[in-house]
Structures are given as structure tokens and as C-alpha cells.
């Protein structure tokens, strides 16, 4: 799997953030870092952190969805007890963030952030609202495809994957330089969830399946 380049001119902010020199490894070895880094425990999770539709007094606006899948290593073994975090825009395509000022409404019943721990089978599960597309001023008439940001932690802050999950059939894929910066078409497809009727719950929510394979899921580290 080939990750996106640090510098991808179509994604304009990489020209400001991409390193201009070779990376320097710290003198402290990774094993020593992991022994002294913070770790996570079950006590860090709230009762409704996994359900982004029930964190406020009222129902959020938009299409309710279930997003679930497994976190696996490259050998296909489940990664148990991993902290999975998500954050996303609301149904109108706006984040609850001071930096997002585009003219779309905020939803008082939707914060757009959640987290859970994987179970013994490596499975995570979130209930949320399908996010909307939004403009991002990277180029003329630039719009991001609908997506959910994912963060997967190991046992320490030094063990973290940050990536994005997209939805099938989005017409904006061809126009999005972040998505297109991934060189291999198969790797791009690894970021697209699949609609799943077995996950879908009647008269309540559509279901999407998306597995995260550590080492094979493209990282958002630019």
C-alpha cells in the first residue's frame, strides 16, 4: 500500500505543511517512548459516546446511520480493546468548530464526535447522522465528499492511525484532491464503506460496514 506523498500540489495546504528536509528520528527508541506514554482505559469512555444521536436532549437533523466494522492487523487478526474515535460535519455539512464559518446551519442536538472500544472480535459500532458535503476553498468550487474522520489508538499516543471513511457512489470523488492524492485505485477503494442491509435496522437507520486494516488503510498524516 502506497501512502499519499507529503507534498501534493492539488491539496494546497500540503505546500505549507510538507517537510522540506529528511525526517530525523528521535534518539529515544520507540519501545522506551511507549513505556512512558499515556495509556487508555475503559474508564475514559462515556455511556453514550458511541451514539452521536443521543448525546443531547433532542434528535439531530438528518439521515440516521449505523457505521460498524472491525479493526484488524495485516494478518486479519482482530485488534481488541482499541480506542476508536470519530468526528464529522453535521447533515448540512458544517462542523461544530469556530474555524467553520460557512453559511450552513449548526444543529444544537449534534456535536459530531464519538468514541468506543473494539470488542473481542475487533468490532466497533457507531450510530450517527450521515454528514453533508461542504466547501473548503482549496480551489475554485471545491467541495469535500461526505466523510467521517476516524482515529484508532493502540495503547499509547504514539500508536495512532488517523484516516477518513467515505460513502459509496459519491460524485465528488473525482474532484477531491485529498481522495485523489492516494496513488493506487485499490487503496482509494479501501476508504469507501459499503452499504449493508444486514446492518440496516428497519424503519430506523441505514447500515454501513467499513473495516480498518492496520498497515493497509491509508493514513491521513499530512
TrEMBL record:
Give the main EC class.
oxidoreductase
Domain Intradiol ring-cleavage dioxygenases, chain residue ranges per copy:
67-95
Per the UniProt entry, the Enzyme Commission number(s) are 1.13.11.3
Which is one GO molecular function term here? protocatechuate 3,4-dioxygenase activity
Instruction: Report the coiled-coil segments.
Output: none
Q: Known Gene3D superfamilies for this protein?
A: Aromatic compound dioxygenase (2.60.130.10)
Q: Which family does it belong to?
A: Belongs to the intradiol ring-cleavage dioxygenase family.
This protein is called Protocatechuate 3,4-dioxygenase beta subunit
Q: What is the lineage of its organism?
A: Bacteria, Bacillati, Actinomycetota, Actinomycetes, Streptosporangiales
Amino acid at each position: 500500500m502506497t501512502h499519499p506523498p507529503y507534498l501534493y500540489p492539488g491539496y494546497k495546504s500540503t505546500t505549507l505543511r510538507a517537510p522540506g528536509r529528511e525526517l530525523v528520528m528521535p534518539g529515544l527508541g520507540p519501545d522506551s517512548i511507549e513505556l512512558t506514554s499515556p495509556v487508555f482505559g475503559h474508564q475514559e469512555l462515556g455511556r453514550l459516546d458511541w451514539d452521536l444521536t443521543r448525546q443531547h436532549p433532542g434528535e439531530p437533523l438528518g439521515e440516521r446511520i449505523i457505521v460498524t466494522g472491525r479493526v484488524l492487523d495485516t494478518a486479519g487478526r482482530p485488534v481488541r480493546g482499541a480506542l476508536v474515535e470519530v468526528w464529522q460535519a453535521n447533515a448540512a455539512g458544517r462542523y461544530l468548530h469556530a474555524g467553520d464559518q460557512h453559511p450552513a446551519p449548526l444543529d444544537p442536538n449534534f456535536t459530531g464526535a464519538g468514541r468506543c472500544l473494539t470488542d473481542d472480535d475487533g468490532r466497533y459500532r457507531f450510530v450517527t447522522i450521515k454528514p453533508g458535503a461542504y466547501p473548503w476553498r482549496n480551489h475554485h468550487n471545491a467541495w469535500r465528499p461526505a466523510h467521517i474522520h476516524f482515529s484508532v489508538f493502540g495503547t499509547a499516543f504514539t500508536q495512532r492511525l488517523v484516516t477518513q471513511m467515505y460513502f459509496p457512489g459519491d460524485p465528488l470523488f473525482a474532484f477531491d484532491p485529498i481522495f485523489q492524492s492516494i496513488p493506487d485505485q485499490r487503496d482509494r477503494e479501501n476508504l469507501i464503506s459499503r452499504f449493508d442491509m444486514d446492518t440496516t435496522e428497519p424503519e430506523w437507520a441505514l447500515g454501513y460496514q467499513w473495516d480498518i486494516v492496520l498497515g493497509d488503510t491509508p493514513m491521513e498524516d499530512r
